[in-house]
């Protein structure tokens, strides 16, 4: 486990297989969930005391959740050497203790299964996915038709994610959104996560805690 604010991701790295789709989340994008997206739910949002990321990788999302919530669980099917539980979230034979908020950046091709299982264990399920994930007949028939998201929160800024590490200087042509389900809550209007959140929600010690190349500048104008 990486204590919040403590030196991070780098010492004991283990490379996962490509099939696990390991793309760590920039820390600011998780802070945008907590500080922008969840508050947009208004009185539909239940009290959050516990949270979990069941695909926690090296902890880029779970350690940010720990900045805000007292009880945060981390697990992943692959052992990245971070001390988190090793468990396949999609193995229905294994129980998963109920949690208030399940937040994750799931592997793209398994995200539907993550949401379907997440809805059985969490009051609030929030996934960070490429915007194109909202398309697709299977996702429509197995999820969206009967259980439309409570909130679709589109990032106006790009959220650059690269394979295997967080690179604060990366760029991307891919758009991302947080999609949130709250048990028994009616859908809300589209929410746009405004520009400027990368700069506002990136903390001075994020590079030290989360980036592989610790000398990488946080913003292009710091080069
Ligand atoms: C896109 S990465 C996200 C990592 C981390 N949540 C983050 O935001 O930085 C997807 C993660 O899902 C994990 N994963 C893939 N299949 C899984 C499964 N069936 N159960 C649990 N974790 C899984 C991978 O090992 C990888 O760490």
UniProtKB/TrEMBL annotation:
<dbReference type="InterPro" id="IPR029063">
    <property type="entry name" value="SAM-dependent_MTases_sf"/>
</dbReference>
<protein>
    <recommendedName>
        <fullName>Methyltransferase</fullName>
    </recommendedName>
</protein>
């Amino acid at each position: 486990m990486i204590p919040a604010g403590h030196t991070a991701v780098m010492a004991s790295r283990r490379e996962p297989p490509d099939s696990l789709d390991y793309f760590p989340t920039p820390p600011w994008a998780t802070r945008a969930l907590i500080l922008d997206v969840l508050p947009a739910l208004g009185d539909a949002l239940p009290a959050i005391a516990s949270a979990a990321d069941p695909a926690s990788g090296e902890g880029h999302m779970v350690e940010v959740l720990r900045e805000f919530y007292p009880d945060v669980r981390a697990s992943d099917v692959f052992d990245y050497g971070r001390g988190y539980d090793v468990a396949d979230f999609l193995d229905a034979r294994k129980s998963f203790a109920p949690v208030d908020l399940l937040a994750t950046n799931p592997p793209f091709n398994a995200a539907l299964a993550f949401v379907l299982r997440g809805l059985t264990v969490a009051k609030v399920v929030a996934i960070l996915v490429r915007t194109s994930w909202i398309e697709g007949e299977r996702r429509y028939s197995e999820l969206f038709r009967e259980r439309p998201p409570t909130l679709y929160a589109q990032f106006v800024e790009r959220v650059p994610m690269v394979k295997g590490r967080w690179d604060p200087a990366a760029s991307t042509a891919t758009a991302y959104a947080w999609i949130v389900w709250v048990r028994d809550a009616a859908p809300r209007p589209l929410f746009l996560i405004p520009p400027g959140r990368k700069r506002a929600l990136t903390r001075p010690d994020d590079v030290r805690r989360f980036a592989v190349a610790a000398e990488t500048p946080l913003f292009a104008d710091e080069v």
